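Below is how a single chain appears once it has passed through the pipeline. First comes the sequence as given, then the structure the pipeline wrote out for it. We keep one example in the README because the format questions we get most often are answered faster by looking than by reading.
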Amino acid sequence: MTTIRKSLYSLIVLAAGIGTAQGAVVLLDTSTTNSIVAIYESQGKIIGDEAATLYLSTSGISSSAGGLEIDLFAHAEHPKNYTSSIVLGADFATVTSGEVINLETAFNTGPTTLVELLETSGSAVSETYDGYLAFRFDAGAGQYYYGAAEITATATRSTSDSNATAMFIIKRMAYNDTADEGLLTGATFEAVPEPAVVTLVLSCGIAALGIRRIFNV
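Resulting structure:
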């Protein structure tokens, strides 16, 4: 019985060790993440459209193609059609502070509007999302690197000032460099062990309790 007890203990310790091993949280470069798209109607003439695209990758964020896509759009048309929007590409999700980002997070699989304002006949109006975005990078073999960004995204329109503006600012962002391991949002970004490993630890604990009852040790 002592041998069984030692074997079970070794198995549980090994599983617990795997469960607590955490990947490094990589802080990404945000020095070029402020992007503003604005257009203005002048002297009753149609100005048209303006657009910009940001790309998020494991190297940071830039305007060069490659990575997850964020599209900004603004449209101005006399006399009252001023619209603006910010659209996220695939593999993003809106989350809250204190939320764990992992394989259970509901990531979008295609373009999703984050903020949008349509034509208006009133004065200045704005729509803002100020909070967290979850994202994931393809790590290959069906796995992902999970990350988060604290952002401010604002769409504005004004017929009195004759303009439409889309603005996207990333305050900070990071990802966990261990595939399929989670990330906790909040004042600091923290690595979270893979859920499947935690389940393994619990299963081993339950098995050990069951054998104790059977052999009365």
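The CA atoms of residues 113 and 140 lie 27 Å apart.

See the next section for the split statistics.
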